[in-house]
Design brief:
With 722 residues, the chain is α/β, with parallel strands linked by helices. It is 55% helix and 9% strand. The protein has four domains: 219 residues, Tetratricopeptide repeat domain (Serine Threonine Protein Phosphatase 5, Tetratricopeptide repeat, Alpha Horseshoe); 98 residues, Tetratricopeptide repeat domain (Serine Threonine Protein Phosphatase 5, Tetratricopeptide repeat, Alpha Horseshoe), CATH 1.25.40; 143 residues, Rossmann fold; 176 residues, Rossmann fold (3-Layer(aba) Sandwich). β8, α25 and β9 form a beta-alpha-beta unit. It starts with a helix and ends with a strand.
Length: 722
């Protein structure tokens, strides 16, 4: 019998499991309770991944020999593979009773508790294993990973550093420490650890991917692209790498490359989140409207079905539907964020109401061109005004200007979400204003975690967030009529006139441009649209073509610096029998000079369903009339709000036909253009649109109103400011 057993063990050790199993069965035929044969057969079953059989045999072995801690450990490991976690923990407890220094059992319990989401017990058991075995690298690694999962990145970094001290030349710990530094916004430290990991294992795709993400965060774009491409070369099915590479090209406005990489990602992983809408948006950015109607209908179905197909921002660009916008936002919130947290704060009335603005745009950005003067005009005797900036410092004049306007300007771009929330709460902020929503470089997770007891969405995102963490949305009666309030998760703060602030001090360059400088015909009627090309959709462009066709001595002037876009639009124009020379293009320029350039045009043609925003107020400020098609969604009613605020409701239309007729009438009816132009010149000086002081006072009334409701324990409700 002993010789048979020795042969079986030899076969097992040489991974000849079939032969070892046959010998064990021979032994058991002669002695059904032979402990060594049962134990070896259990081990063979485990190696063959027959975990249920392995469990059965290990239990039998434990009954025969109940004083072997290693048996209970092996049984528990098999149970862990079968996801029988509580039973596994029970037998590991038996192991540690028999051997209190059995560090492997504590390690196993740590893994089981972690899988059960019982994180305190998991941490306790990992620490116990480390206490017994000071150089237990695997326990350090799993404990560090658990801290990282819990977003306790400081403790995670400490643990991973200890693991590296045990074995400095080890890939996993350096890669994991890099990931922790990434979450701590210490991107250079992250890159250093990724590089160390790659010296150990230069063919690991995920580390090149991780390094690329960190490089992207510090704006080393070309190096980031190189590392994403390296990751893809090592793993041709790396969908996330294709996705992020596509995102970079999208930011660079190299939309053809963006589409290529995003489509590769989607082909590899058809259910990759929110990419279908992004690809559609990029195609719109190129004015590539191939299968536009079919793609639009398909995406709409997916949004209505609650599929993770389109971001809220992509949705508002394409659809004129507040209901669809709400569906997209709800899906996005449920997918990307944890449930909004309740923040209870002692309701102690401060001498001043503390209002904080959160944004990545405190630099040379359209939002600042609107808001700078308002920050300066806030009543500092009644309000203490904070800025939380998580964007770049471009050392621009406008950044320096807005920094001076705040009581406290806090640069938090290298802070984690938890750190920013902590700073906000310690500062005792009463009202937190999110200026980003779901636009690029947002930090919406700050509001999920609750920076302040009152949280308001304003200006940056023209639609509902769909989240319970945002209490109010600032709008006006034109933007959100009563019948549409049901499509907004927030309570509405209705400001008088217009919801959009404008800077009354903004300078228009004194530089005198000529039409000749921009290739514009001297005696033609110049229609223009300086909106981003992703806002130009086929329905509206075809309306513009009809206008050009009926106003013979006219041209259309667009802000386009992409040759693909130019060629696509020219082809469509020619296909409709219009000379391509009637379509003219210009590039971006300094804002003050852009305002001066606008004076060369005669009429701004607004886009639909996503209107001009800052661009519309720029147009009106430069006394360039703008006509708009009013829709149902927030984004499709912005220009209507601005026109109403400047007393030019006559330039608001409700159908494509009205829009076309008005554009033609202004260009052709004798004296009508001059009448509109003169009315705008007079109204811009007297109407509320550019009255920043009046706007600021109305906004402060709103802040006082919501603050009093909060102090008096009243729930948020619709507010009307008169």
């Amino acid at each position: 019998m002993n010789n048979l057993l020795k042969s079986a063990i030899d076969y097992y050790q040489n991974k000849k499991f079939i032969k070892a199993e046959k010998i064990c069965k021979i032994i058991l035929d002669k002695d059904s309770n032979n402990f060594d044969a049962i134990n070896l057969l259990a081990a063979i079953s485990f190696q063959n991944k027959h975990f249920s059989k392995s469990i059965e045999l290990f239990k039998k072995a434990c009954k025969i020999n109940p004083n072997r801690a290693d048996l209970y450990n092996n049984l528990s490991i098999a149970l862990l593979h079968e996801k029988k976690l509580k039973e596994a923990i029970k037998f590991w407890n038996e192991a540690t009773k028999l051997n209190p220094n059995f560090f492997q059992a504590y390690f196993g319990k740590g893994n089981a508790f972690s899988d059960l989401k019982d994180y305190p017990n998991a941490i306790t058991n990992f620490n116990k294993a480390i206490e017994i075995k000071k150089d237990y690298k695997e326990a350090y690694n799993n404990l560090g990973s658990l801290y990282a999962k819990l977003k306790d990145y400081e403790n995670a970094s400490i643990i991973f550093k200890k693991a590296i001290l045990i074995k400095p030349v080890h890939f996993n710990e350096h890669n994991n420490l890099g990931n922790v530094y990434y979450e701590l916004k210490k991107y250079n430290d992250a890159i250093e650890n990724y590089d160390f990991a790659l010296k150990i294992n230069p063919d690991f795709a995920i580390t090149y991917y991780n390094k690329a993400k960190a490089l992207q965060k510090i704006n080393l774009t070309e190096l980031s692209i190189t590392n994403y491409k390296k990751a893809i070369s090592l793993n041709e099915n790396f969908s996330e790498a294709y996705k992020n590479l596509g995102n970079i090209y999208m930011d660079l406005k190299t939309l053809d490359k963006s589409i290529y990489n995003h489509e590769k990602a989607l082909k590899i992983q058809p259910n990759i989140k929110f990419l279908l809408g992004t690809i559609f948006q990029s195609r719109c950015g190129l004015c590539d409207w191939t299968n536009f109607d079919d793609n639009k209908k398909n995406l709409e179905r997916e949004i209505l079905d609650g599929k993770k197909s389109s971001t809220p921002f992509s949705t508002l660009l394409i659809y004129d539907s507040p209901y669809l916008q709400m569906k997209a936002s709800n899906t996005y919130i449920e997918s990307e964020f944890q449930k909004s947290k309740f923040f209870k704060k002692d309701k102690v009335r401060n001498k001043k109401v503390r209002v904080a603005y959160y944004s990545s745009d405190f630099h040379n950005h359209a939002t600042m061109y609107l808001m700078a003067n308002m920050f300066e005009l806030h009543d500092k005797s009644k309000f203490e005004i904070y800025a939380f900036s998580f964007g770049p410092d471009d050392n621009s004049k406008i950044r320096k200007r807005v920094i001076k306007s705040f009581d406290k300007f806090i640069d938090v771009k290298e802070k984690t979400t938890q750190e920013i929330v902590k700073i906000s709460r310690e500062a005792n902020i009463d009202i937190a204003i999110d200026l980003k929503g779901f636009t690029k470089d947002n930090r919406f997770e700050l509001f999920i975690e609750r920076c302040a007891p009152i949280q308001i969405s304003y200006l940056g995102f023209p639609g509902t967030t769909g989240s319970s963490c945002i209490d109010y949305l600032i709008a006006d009666r034109m933007i959100i009529p009563d019948q549409n309030k049901k499509h907004y998760s927030e309570k509405i703060i209705y400001l008088p006139n217009t919801y959009q602030v404008n800077d009354s001090t903004l300078n228009i360059s004194e530089k005198k441009f000529s039409r000749k400088e921009f290739g514009l015909p001297e005696n033609s009627f110049v229609y223009c649209c300086f909106n981003n090309t992703y806002k130009i959709l086929p329905e509206m462009f075809h309306t513009w073509i009809k206008i050009l066709d009926k106003v013979q001595n006219s041209v259309l002037w667009l802000l386009v610096d992409n040759d693909i876009v130019k060629n696509n639009l020219k082809k469509i124009l020619v296909s409709k029998g219009i000379d391509q020379d009637r379509l003219l293009f210009t590039n971006r320029m300094m804002h003050s000079e852009h305002l001066a350039r606008l004076k060369l045009a005669d009429l701004f043609l607004d886009t639909y369903p996503c209107n001009a925003h800052t661009t519309a107020s720029d147009s009106l400020r430069s006394c360039l009339p703008i006509i708009t098609l009013r829709g149902n969604s927030f984004a499709s009613r912005v220009t209507s709000s601005l026109l109403s605020s400047v007393g030019l409701d006559k330039l608001i239309t409700d159908t494509k036909e009205e829009y076309e007729e008005l554009a033609i009438k202004i260009a052709t009816e004798n004296g009508y253009f001059d009448k509109i132009k003169n009315e705008l010149k007079n109204n811009i000086k007297t109407k509320p649109l550019l009255n920043t002081r009046m706007f600021t006072k109305n906004l402060e009334k709103a802040y006082f109103n919501v603050y009093e409701k909060y102090i008096n324990n009243n729930i948020p409700e619709t507010i009307e400011i008169n």
